[in-house]
Design brief:
Blueprint lengths: L4 E2 L9 H10 L18 H18 L5 E6 L2 H13 L3 E6 L2 H10 L6 E7 L21 E4 L1 E2 L4 E2 L11 E4 L16 E5 L10 E6 L15 H6 L9 H17 L1 H21 L17 E4 L4 H13 L2 E2 L10 E4 L6 H19 L2
Parallel strand pairs: 1-12, 3-4, 3-5, 5-8, 8-9
Antiparallel strand pairs: 2-10, 6-7, 9-10, 11-13
Helix pairs in contact: 1-6, 2-6, 3-4, 6-7, 7-9
């Protein structure tokens, strides 16, 4: 069966080699006579999967020993609530760089007794570039950023300097695709369905001194309880953890995060060069804030955008339609997306422009 070039923002493309391994394991994992989906989360087989997944992630991200790695459920959206419930004592700070930042801010504002301050925002410039982050008040319990904005196509690739309070990052759409120093952060969280595997798993990497700051939290929303139980206070998303382990193995074999970042930069450069050299297509994002993984582009004509998307679908390139809030097109180039797909997209862009300009 021919594979399509899937530019989806998530759930995203996975490597064929990983999908084939899943297929091979589906009926009987390691000769157990049980599917990986049927394994008890208390079994030695699954505990080994969990241990391997954590060990591989620690290696790939060089996670220090004083950080806990949690495999949770609920998506990054649940972390919008879980984070301030656990770390927010009196006053917290947020940087607003787009739709998901705004959702995180809205959820934090629902926590009783917690003051939520937006210390920087790019809303006034329609989120086309990152804002300047001011000197951060030491009284904040944490400052929250979104490292990559899936909808708007902007990213923080360099972290704010001089942050003396815990820096928290939603890395859902660029975890493992760009190299970050985990020790720069107090807590990192990410939904899995971009670079880690299928939807259903959320990774949380949290410094140990930030665990257990508040008492009497609901058990499922308490980092302390989740950490104490090895992410198995209840039944974890076993299949998603297994798939994540395979993705981590795939990335390690490829050369790790440093190597995939080189590949991702090459893919992004090909597409940005095509956009910037075009008379028809343009990027709505300022050059110094551009994402490597989510690249929006437009013609400025809604009907031409629709026609281009249709022609792309006819050529086996799907899910290029931009988010409904911004329109146009969006190419999501996550780790598993092949460079051949970028070349196909660029070729179509040139053909399409020649036909339009020739009219």
């Amino acid at each position: 069966m021919e594979r399509l070039y899937n530019f989806s923002a998530g759930p995203a493309i996975m490597p064929v080699s990983v999908l084939k391994t899943i297929q091979e394991d589906l009926l009987s994992y390691q000769g157990s006579g049980m599917s990986v989906m049927e394994l008890s989360h208390r079994s030695s087989l699954f505990q080994s999967i969990m241990n391997d997944a954590e060990s591989l992630l620690r290696e790939l991200m060089t996670i220090p020993s004083n950080y806990k790695v949690l495999f949770l459920q609920g998506g990054a959206s649940l972390q919008f609530t879980m984070l301030p419930m656990n770390l927010g004592k009196t006053k917290v700070a947020y940087v607003n760089t787009g739709s998901w930042s705004e959702k995180a801010i809205e959820e934090a504002q629902k926590i009783d007794g917690l003051t939520v301050e937006v210390i920087a925002s790019s809303k006034e410039n329609n989120f086309i570039e990152n804002p300047e982050i001011p000197v951060i008040d030491k009284e904040y319990d944490y400052v929250h950023i979104t490292t990559n904005n899936t909808i708007e196509g902007t990213a923080f690739l360099n972290m704010p300097n001089g942050v003396e309070v815990p820096l928290v990052a939603d890395m859902s759409s660029n975890i493992l695709s760009s190299n970050y120093d985990v020790s720069d952060f107090g807590l990192i969280y990410a939904g899995a369905q971009k670079n880690i595997g299928p939807a259903g798993l959320t990774v949380v990497i949290v410094r140990e001194d930030l665990i257990g700051l508040k008492e009497n939290l609901p058990a499922m929303l308490d980092y302390k309880i989740q950490a104490a139980n090895g992410s198995m206070y209840n039944t974890p998303p076993t299949f998603a953890v297994y798939a994540a382990k395979l993705m981590f193995e795939w990335l390690k074999e490829l050369g790790g995060v440093a190597e995939i970042e080189k590949i991702n930069r090459k893919k992004a450069a090909l597409l940005y060069e095509a956009i910037d050299s075009s008379k028809l297509f343009r990027s709505p994002v300022s050059k110094h804030s551009r994402s490597l993984t989510n690249i929006p582009f437009v013609t400025g004509n809604a009907e031409l955008d629709k026609l281009f998307i249709k022609q792309a679908e006819n050529r086996g390139m799907i899910n290029l339609k931009g988010h409904r809030s911004v329109g146009g097109m969006r190419a999501s180039l996550y780790n598993a997306f092949p460079i051949e797909g970028v070349n196909e997209l660029v070729a179509l862009m040139k053909e399409f422009e020649a036909k339009v300009e020739g009219k």
